[in-house]
Amino acid sequence: MVYGHTRKHAQSDEPDSYLCLRTQVLKQLDIKCCRFTVATGLYTGYDYNCPAHEGPVFSSSVEQDKENDVTQEKKTQDFGENPLDVRDTDHYKDEYVSGFVDKWDELIDWDGRANSEGDFFIRLLQEHGARKVLDVAAGTGFHSVRLLENGFEVTSADGSPEMLAKAFENGRKRGHILRTVHADWRFLNKSVHDLYDAVICLGNSFTHLHSDNDRRKALAEFYATLRHDGILILDQRNYDALLDHQVQPTHNYYYCGDNVKASPEHIDESLARFRYEFPDKSTFHLNMFPLRKEYVRKLMREVGFQKVTTYGDFKETYREAEPDFFIHVAEKRYIEGENE
Ligand SMILES: C[S@@+](CC[C@H](N)C(=O)[O-])C[C@H]1O[C@@H](n2cnc3c(N)ncnc32)[C@H](O)[C@@H]1O
Predict the structure, then answer these.
(1) What is the mean predicted confidence (pLDDT) over 201-211?
(2) pTM of the model
């Protein structure tokens, strides 16, 4: 199947990237060619005869197309002979295989998750005067769609084309055309040339970065794409509780699907390996880095965020070991004398 790839539009000299959806997807989704201008954040046309898809200019990009091509369906994950050795940032691309992506919505359960988080993120964004939001870990599009439906202007980015295509499809089913950008956080500003009031990185996504250098670079890229007084909202599991107290998270808030089991299979100071089991007995894994809460807060301040407020399971006050998830709100706005 599918999917999208970013590349410079063949017929344009503009220094923008475009998302060209492959013909197969376009047919499948019953839409024509879309051309998305990152700089303006607008779809600029639906033209099935878009010259970018044909002719000599297109064929000169065949090598790049091959490189970006994800048409081969990958249904199963491969962690090699020793899965506990896989502690590598790039591996997320192999973890979100189509078989897992197809099951993701069963795991999170959109209605259940919307009920559990209520209007927490919507309120937070409104309180900070945010209107234009970049969802950098769009996944299957849950937050992008919720925010769109609550009047925000949203761009959905993700490093996994499989996820992005599913997000696009989910958006279409609900009557939206998502503005999608295929981008890895470490090189975000190569593909995103606009400024946003808020960047959101939700669903325990940041934990996919396995080195301190990658985390700093990603945060610096998020910081750069924010307006001068923008905010970053980033969440993470309460790994401190897992590492220090071996507390089993309850998953009441994030993974709301019935009969789906998400459990830590292994945890040490540099690896948290989670196992996801579905009612049909299919299983998948994710190898994450167990982020300590204070470490993330410190990193955020070190890349320039002036103030970081951390919520526990959507509450401002909590006992450290209790929450399943922490939500950090990092403010870029300059605060004189702020010294946490
Ligand atoms: C745990 S999923 C969460 C998806 C969604 N936010 C949710 O809550 O359902 C993590 C997402 O982050 C994306 N991701 C992981 N590492 C990334 C990176 N370095 N750059 C861009 N996206 C990345 C994955 O492709 C995946 O879609």
Answers:
(1) 97
(2) 0.82
